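Q: Two folds, back to back.
A: First:
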Amino acid sequence: MKKIIVSALCLLFSITACANHPVRNVNKVILWGHKIHSHTHSYIHWGFDRAFKHLGFDTYWFDNNEDVSSFDFSNSLFITEGQVDKNIPIRDDCFYIIHNCKTQKYQHLLDVNQAIILQVYSHDCLKRNDPAFSTCFHYDLSQPVIYMPWATDLLPHEIDAVKEQLPTVQKNNNAQFIGSAGGMGGFGNVAQLNTFKKACQENGRYFIVRNAGSCSMEENRASIQQAYIAPALQGSWQCNNGYIPCRIFKNISYGALGVTNSKAVYDLFEGKIVYNSDPHQLFYDAQETLKTWTLEQQYALMDLVRDKHTYLNRIESLFSFFEMVATHK
């Protein structure tokens, strides 16, 4: 029996029909493309993979290079991204969640409510006046597309386990950033990382920057948990456009104070984390906050992520949106 998590998002959607939409009863979940560590989006698939397996779904992860001619795809839910969907099977007996894909390929499925478009939240939703069902969660039924942030890769019970460990964690002298570091112009965060590094050096602290694929997931979590400060630093384009990175959810769920240079991230967390648009001053603000930061405050922040920002929450949002689209049409 699949364990379906009942989310408050159902209430926010105000869904009164299609309570047992067929997508909830698929036989298999298929993640298509971006095998782990091959691309930054692979960590999104990793989060979905862990969550769907936890819910009891038979979950598989394929890409364009695999021979799947003998695999039974009937009654499956596919999740894919536009750079890697070249050879994805298109079937009338399956459901699809597509991200940055050419919609022509899936138009028939979109027309018959067997596909939805997943997009990350940005301020474009506000410019278009797309309806919202909570902060940074918007939708457009005409597409149909749902806009939402990513999430932590930890499951709720794993966040609770981290909370139990925190009183004995020994913090080190380092600031730690794990994630995508680079890019050109406004799309990258090199300038922000270097500015934060300068503040660290002024205070005799190392600033370690690592790609997530350079160590195991367990080592990444331990590094964040043990770090003096673990900022989720974004480039100017992401900050200006309200992009919400998965890194902020991960860092908090691993046991770190939330530290951001994005106003959209700060607003999503209702002002309960440290924010400054200047990464240099952000270090000093975080350092000051840490002087009085308590375990109880950290637990409350982790509870917020546990209850609202895991991939279990995102799956429930996506399933609920399937139901909402079916009701609308």
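A: Second:
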Amino acid sequence: MTRAHHHHRNRLRGFGYLSRLGPGVVTGAADDDPSGIGTYSQVGASFGLGYVWTAPVALPLAAAVQETAARLGLVTGKGLAALIRERFPRWVLYGSVLLVCVANVFNIGADLGAMAASLRLVVPVPQIALLFAFAAGTLALEVFVPYHQYSRVLRWLTLSLGAYVAVLFAVHVDWGTVARMVFVPGLPGGRSGLAALIAVFGTTVSPYLFFWQASEEVEEELEERKRAGRSARAPGPVKAEHCRLMRLDVVAGMASAVAVMFAIMVSSAVTLGAHGLTTIQTADQAARALRPIAGPVAGLLFALGVVGTGMLAVPVLAGSTAYALAETFGWREGLSRTLREAHGFYGAMAAALAVGLTLGFVGVNPIRALYFAAILNGLAAPPLILVMLLLSNSKDALGRWSAGWLSNVLVGAALILMTLLPLAYLLS
């Protein structure tokens, strides 16, 4: 049986390829969520150009980990939690799901808080009202509007992140120093620098993206089969072309995410850090990085970027939590299903948003919370990467599509790096 897969990702070459990209680009856009913006801004302001070398290091590692998640979903037709449930002891399943759920709800709370704080720069509305509006709006959109439809609209808001690239051409940047810092890595800042590294890699190689990527590959397959009028029986074999398209999709998404990461870090270093603002406490302080090109409307531009990426990322955070719980407990799942068909799935999503929302009332500084969320992701990632590495090498599960040497080297490097960083921090 020939497999129909990803109607918009149906060929490798030809005009308009970008319009045919699939879950990988959405994942990449969600990777530059408010937590990412806050973390990269803080690291650039605090350490200048000292950590710009993390961008070229993070790209192959993040792409390899996301490709592994995508391949698991594409080949098996199952989400990550479902695969863990099948092939590991219960304690591994529950531990993995607990890690991602805890990291996700804190990330949701941090993102919602930052979105509200950013919008208040241009709209004088109480913080609490904005928190409820964003949480309720996100849930309503996920329940009643297919995510793939409204994400296309929201991606236009994320184009405001390109302003960080524009800043690089509006201010003086010593590109010789930048190049030296990229190719000659350093570790400035001692213990606080190690915490910054955990945050940078934690927000770039984020656990929620693993679960989301695998599940969205499955979701896209189901959508394509519905579109083709086929039954829901087991799909046919994956072709080499399918995997090549998936890999290009994933690499394109992660490359765009890391490019934005690099631009934010350099922009913050040459604006905020160079003018003595090394600790970002408020949204207004973070927005100052955009003033060289935006002037008095820097707050508006910053708010558009944070709200746009937040409205993309918060559904991914809540959705990955719901996928993980639904697959763990055998509930019907999927954004393509209605509320009546998958009430447990949507209930888990609502619960994740509700718990994240409560973090907005505990008095945590919204901008600092973004940094802490990135660190938490960095601590949660290593055991989940290990589980994925083991799954990807299972011939029984993936057959000819089990991991090759390059995938094993890159994913293994990500595992080692993200394991050693917390240990170095604790021992320093």
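Q: And?
A: Residues 11-20 have pLDDT under 50 and may be disordered.
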